[in-house]
From TrEMBL:
<dbReference type="Pfam" id="PF11838">
    <property type="entry name" value="ERAP1_C"/>
</dbReference>
<dbReference type="GO" id="GO:0005615">
    <property type="term" value="C:extracellular space"/>
</dbReference>
<feature type="domain" description="ERAP1-like C-terminal">
    <location>
        <begin position="67"/>
        <end position="411"/>
    </location>
</feature>
<dbReference type="GO" id="GO:0005737">
    <property type="term" value="C:cytoplasm"/>
</dbReference>
<protein>
    <recommendedName>
        <fullName>ERAP1-like C-terminal domain-containing protein</fullName>
    </recommendedName>
</protein>
<dbReference type="InterPro" id="IPR024571">
    <property type="entry name" value="ERAP1-like_C_dom"/>
</dbReference>
<dbReference type="GO" id="GO:0016020">
    <property type="term" value="C:membrane"/>
</dbReference>
<comment type="similarity">
    <text>Belongs to the peptidase M1 family.</text>
</comment>
<dbReference type="InterPro" id="IPR050344">
    <property type="entry name" value="Peptidase_M1_aminopeptidases"/>
</dbReference>
Amino acid sequence: QQILLFSQRLYLRERPHDVPDQDRFLWSIPIVLVRQDRMNFHNTTPMVWMMKEREIEIANLPDEKHFIIVNPEEIGPFPVNYDAENWKLLVEFLQTDERTKIPVYTRAKLLHDAWNLAYAGDLNITIALNMTLFLRNERDYLAWDPVFTMIDHIGKHIDDLLVCRQFEVSATCSYNRLRLAGKRFQYYVKMLLTPLYEDLGEVPQPGESEGTTHLRNTAKIFLCQAGYEPCIDEANKEFHKWMESENPDEGNPVANQYICPVFKWRMFTEWLFGLERFINFPKTRKRSERTYLLKTLAGCPRYSGKIEYLLNLTLLQRDGNFSDSDLYLILSMLAGSSSGYNTLFDYLVSNWDEIKKNFADKPMLWNSIVASATGSFKSHTGLELVSQLYRKRQSEFGNADFIVEKSLRNIKVEIEWTDKNIPAMERWLLANDKE
């Protein structure tokens, strides 16, 4: 038996963690606890309450050879962190056939907590990666749900590390350790999801649950994003049915899930076809379809040439087919992808005078352009790029000056996370690739 220390503090996932007076936040928290040596998930009576206390001690808990699970089934709306040894015991147990003794909601919560804590910087990322190992044998859709959020968050973070700038020697960039970590993560995603997708099968089975159907569809979407060729080929085949239709502006016969992979991985021809459909979009069709098409045109491409073409139309030519609302949407989507904000940044630098002139009477749009171009970098290279632009144009930003200063602060915070976690992730991915 041992005595354990329980503490509480404000949890902040998104960076920067600059909420004032964080130490003043305290809550009354029920401590519902399951112990490995007396596993019972039916008793939800709290052992004790933390009555707005910073710390409490609880005695008569199992020894260090047995794990505990706090807040099972997510009884309370808060994540739970453990010491490294308890996480290790959970990782080992979840990889055994006995893992189903832990209900699926709790298995999902453990994975969810590990990844969100790691993303916030509160947990070693290798522990969060270890928590994914049991998924090799997991087929319950509820347990997989947190994984897709993790792939999305981590994927967007490391995407910035995969971009080779024009001034970088290609060989140096290609073998940069952080860049290799990004590529290995993409490979791990495919290795994790491919067996799942193949086990589920491409076609829904009679009588299967909605959860299984949802899991198949989601796995397919993320595999397509990761470059899974069978998925991309299928998407391209479906998309060409639209291209070959007699009246392509009358309606879109392609399922939404196929559009983004085509715009991301296929050629300029397909993307330009989509842009033409947006420009010729009939007023009789649903506006939501037009919005979705524009989101994918701006947010999906990884080839800068497609994005530059769109920026020529909207930022320089000020094409009348694009409203101010459309431009806000485009900028928002570009800020969410490394190809998007890298290309937008380069485009702003190269066409500074003309863009600033075009938006002189639209200060809010100008601010949005600057924010989207500078605010999403997560690497030392990005910090240097934005710093150089700020030094060169500091007197010309106008009301957007504070936006660049905020971007620089945020990039520095993201770099701290990158420097701490990405090398550790790269080592873990390399070690587990051998397995």
